[in-house]
Design brief:
Helix content is about 45%, strand content about 5%. The chain is built from 12 helices and 4 strands.
Length: about 325
């Protein structure tokens, strides 16, 4: 109970600190494009109805954008050696949803709403659509001008990372260990390609996988090997959450406690007493997870933002205005 109070206290105290960070503000488009957030939510909702995988894709998209160059839509830029070309980003999806929203907004409010804000708001809406909390986030982000593949790997979490590696990376983004545990809960929805967790298995002489990572539940490992045999195509995927894959809930933490975290980086959260305690608290109390998610997501979408005269408002998300 004491740990829950501490976590709640941290979440509530962070609300004021991060509400208007870096020049962002609530209702930023109230005068310039009052229907912006409604339009984005409507497009995310309709896209998710047609493709249930969209919420997970949009949530992953915001992580991969914000951790590289900050939340500035640098991941949306297309071209040689841009962030999209790095192998770590080739499986990221949801771009078409962002472009669809941008196209409508450009017709109604030309050169007003940034792609960076669309990404943040779309991810926010995706969580709400999937059953999670609807987070109020400030807007006013501007789009970046730089997108380099070489910036990707040093700035995104690899699924094989240890706790120390994850903490180091999150700290460099101004995010705490608590934020790390909370934001890892994003794995409660979405899918992963088989190669993202194959390091937990080894191919034997008969061309079959055997489990070598003993931190993974053996029965769950058998199911994963059925879905991802050695012969599986590169496009093959499995659900991040084997229990409620399309619902944003606290099942991710329950899975961890029974050793059904899909990635090595998931299982690593149980390796230290402090993070294991957080996992248990969130597994036992979904409301606690949702309250803390709201604040951690607010911090995530404030990482490295560009405001004022920085960057630009792109006319199309795939290219700069130059």
């Amino acid at each position: 109970m004491e740990t829950r109070r501490v976590i709640l206290s941290i979440a509530v105290s962070s609300l004021f600190v991060f509400s208007f960070v870096d020049g962002l503000s609530f209702n930023f488009y109230a005068a310039s494009c009052p229907s912006a957030e409604f339009i984005i939510r409507d497009i995310v909702t309709s896209s998710s109805s047609n493709d249930p995988s969209i919420p997970g894709k949009l949530l992953r998209l915001v992580f991969h954008d914000c951790f590289v160059e900050g939340c500035d839509a640098s991941l949306m830029l297309i071209g040689n050696n841009t962030e999209q070309t790095d192998p770590g980003n080739r499986s990221v999806g949801g771009y078409s949803v962002i472009e669809s929203a941008k196209k409508v907004l450009e017709m109604l409010c030309p050169e007003t709403v940034s792609c960076a804000d669309i990404i943040a708001l779309a991810a926010r809406d995706a969580v709400g659509i999937a059953g999670g909390p609807m987070v109020q986030i400030p807007t006013g982000r501007r789009d970046g001008m730089v997108s380099l593949a070489s910036n990707v790997r040093p700035n995104i979490v690899d699924t094989s990372f240890t706790m120390d590696e994850m903490v180091k990376l999150f700290t460099s983004k101004g995010l705490s260990v608590l934020d790390l545990v909370i934001l890892s809960g994003a794995h409660t929805i979405g899918v992963a390609h088989c190669n993202a967790f194959r390091g937990r298995f080894q191919e034997d002489t008969k061309g079959r996988f055997t489990l070598i990572d003993k931190t993974l539940d053996s029965n769950y490992a058998v199911e994963l090997m059925k879905q991802c045999p050695v012969s599986a195509m590169a496009s093959a995927t499995v659900n991040n959450d084997p229990e409620t894959p399309m619902v944003f809930d606290n099942q991710y933490y329950r899975n961890l406690l029974v050793h059904k975290g899909l990635f090595q980086s998931d299982s690593a959260l149980l390796n230290e007493n402090s993070t294991r305690t957080m996992v248990k608290d969130f597994a036992n109390n979904q409301e606690l997870f949702f309250v803390n998610w709201s604040q951690a997501f607010l911090k995530l979408t404030s990482v490295g933002v560009k405001t004022g005269n920085e960057g630009e408002i792109r006319r199309t998300c795939a290219s700069t205005n130059a």
